[in-house]
Amino acid sequence: MDEGSEARGTVIQTKDLNQIFLNDKEEQTFIDTKNHHSVLLDDKNKTIVVTSTDKHRIEISDKDKKIEIADSSGKHRFTLDIGGQQLTISTDTGSIDVLAPKGEIKLDAKSIALKAQTDVKIDCKDMKTDAKGNINTKAGMNLKAKANMKHELEGMSIKGKAQMEVKMEAMNVTSKAQMMNKTEGMMVNSSANTMNIVKGMLVKIN
């Protein structure tokens, strides 16, 4: 702080060591409590910084067009990027929980991307997926769909294709078509351990 004729600031201090620094040269006002909670009002850099005793802080920057809340390590942050039109909640070492046990959580965006280094888990009572266009599911290795009761596939046409083998196994397998049921291959083998029935109004074996 300048002194004498060059002085462009002043300090106000209480007997409990709460202080206010007024600095006209740097265009700053700094408030500091005896426990070192502080507020910096910086007109030159268009910034307001609120800092706690443990150095957790809130920073509002009109210059950078950002608002940030962070812990003392800077590893856990809530950032509102006004210039970039982006809101970021991030933690470098911890977890993020979004809880609404008696309410509803909604995600509404032009597009939504989910990415995990290990697993993505969804646990719910009933699950509904509705796409106005297409649903594409791809697995790098195996894809498994299982239902304890009933598994239904329904569509105008259903196509299953495998590079090597398609296998269906059950106590009973029924294949039914309203018009034509066709089995075709370089070799077709139909066998039964007890009885094999071929039935129709007209049966042709060539």
Protein architecture, described:
The protein is rod-shaped. A hairpin with a 5-residue loop joins β5 (47-51) and β6 (57-61). It is built from no helices and 9 strands. The chain has strands at 9-13, 19-23, 28-32, 38-42, 47-51, 57-61, 66-70, 76-81, 86-91. Helix content is 0%, strand content 23%. It has a 9-stranded antiparallel β-sheet with strand order 1-2-3-4-5-6-7-8-9, with no helix packed on it. It is mainly β and 206 residues long.
Which structural class do the helices and strands define?
mainly beta
Q: How do the strands of the widest beta sheet line up side by side?
A: 1-2-3-4-5-6-7-8-9
Average residue-wise pLDDT: 89
Stretches where pLDDT is under 50 for at least 5 consecutive residues are none
Task: Report the end-to-end length measured between terminal Cα atoms.
Answer: 108 Å
Short key terms for the protein model shown above:
single chain; 206 residues; mainly beta; nine-stranded antiparallel beta sheet; rod-shaped
Secondary structure blueprint with pairings:
Layout (H helix, E strand, L loop, with lengths): L8 E5 L5 E5 L4 E5 L5 E5 L4 E5 L5 E5 L4 E5 L5 E6 L4 E6 L115
Q: What is the gist of this entry?
A:
The chain is 0% helix and 23% strand. It has 206 residues and is mostly beta strands.
